[in-house]
Amino acid sequence: MIDRGSAARLKPGMLEELLRSGGVQAMVLSRRQALVSGQGLVFLDAAGLAGRFKGTAYAPEQVIYLGTALPGARAAEGTQYVLFVLPEQFEVRAEPFEPHVEGIPAGAQWAGFREVAAQLDPTDTALFIEASAIANWHATHTHCPRCGAATVPEAGGWVRRCPSDNSEHYPRTDPAIIVTVVGPDDRLLLGGGGPLDSRNYSTLAGFVEPGESLEQAVVREIGEEVGVRVTASQYLGSQSWPFPASLMLGFTATTADTEATPDGVEVTRARWFSRAELQEAVLSGEIVISSRLSIARALIEHWYGGVIQDRPDSA
Ligand SMILES: [Zn+2]
Predict the structure, then answer these.
(1) How does pLDDT run across 244-269, given as a tens digit for each residue?
(2) Exposed/middle/buried for 308, CB within 10 Å: 0-12, 13-18, 19+?
(3) Are 125 and 116 in contact (CB under 8 A)?
(4) How far, in Å, from the CA of 152 to the mean position of ligand 1?
(5) How far is the CA of 83 from the centre of ligand 1 (A)?
(6) Ligand 1 mean position to 9 CA, how many Å?
(7) DSSP bridge partners of 154
(8) The pLDDT of residue 235
(9) Do the domains spanning 2-140 and 174-304 agree at the CATH topology level?
(10) What's the confidence (pLDDT) of residue 98?
């Protein structure tokens, strides 16, 4: 895994010094896609890449410190990582590359997190999530909310400072609750909606409002979305989902209600399942539930008490 070096990155000029020192691994991100190969994320020599892209259309919009490898990572312990957020994607399949970049393995390509998450190891997963979160924040927080002046990144890319009023601005994360609702007969309530496949069913979820506790958000969201009154909730775990900036906080909640009425907006269908009914509906293809990458699946399987078998022909 990664030590983000939250103290080390505060040193003025640390990023410039790091890039000069050599041996630093650069992850590249462009249009929310990273460069990946069969081994996982592709890391390039940061100093070489900075020199290669200088003055070109690929000159990075942001260079951000990501941290150092801890024991167990694919790279040697202490390997330093930075992120280059590129304005354009260079062509990795054409020969010669334009601009030519050393160290790109054959078969490398650009890919979004969802496309490759299943094949990434825990360190690459953590880096992709961290990189996406901080890159998305920079892309949408370019100006001071107080005075409107363009802000300038500092602290390795983890703070933006306003040169006009000297205010500091930090990356933000939007908390959202995601909930398994369990009825009096131990059946699970799942819902679906929006433009997705009408067979899709998942846990209910929603953003926490300002001034609201997580427990209050659980009660409000479930009430709004399906008209069910939950009486007790328990926190089970969380998942960062920075597309663009969510932190999913997983709960299980109980209700005495047996009827659910979808709001017709966020949720257009809701259904109670016994464990046997859920497994059968998934195996038959009647419904599709969240993938193994998601906390939704982990919450559903927490209720189920084990692994739910996917339909053999599903991805
Ligand atoms: Zn300002």
Answers:
(1) 899 999 999 999 999 999 999 889 99
(2) middle
(3) no
(4) 11
(5) 26
(6) 23
(7) 159
(8) 98
(9) yes
(10) 60
What is the whole-number distance in angstroms between the Cα of residue 102 and the centre of ligand 1?
Answer: 40
Cα of 168 vs centre of ligand 1, distance in Å, is 9
pLDDT digits (tens, 9 = 90+) for 212-241: 999 999 999 999 999 999 998 999 999 999
Task: State the Cα–Cα distance between residues 125 and 105, nearest whole angstrom.
Answer: 19
Query: What pTM was estimated for this model as a whole?
Result: 0.90
Q: Ligand 1 center to residue 143 CA distance, Å?
A: 8
Output the CATH code of domain 2-140: 3.90.79
What CATH number does domain 174-304 carry, 3.40.640.10, 3.50.7.10, 3.90.79.10, 3.40.50.10090?
3.90.79.10
- Pair type for strands 40-41 and 33-37: antiparallel
Torsion sign across C-alpha atoms 92, 79, 131, 218? positive
| Distance (Å) from CA 63 to ligand 1 centroid | 22
Domain boundaries, the chain: 2-140, 174-304
Ligand 1 centroid vs 215 CA: distance in angstroms?
Answer: 35
Length of the chain as a residue count: 315
Q: For position 52, what pLDDT does the model report?
A: 86
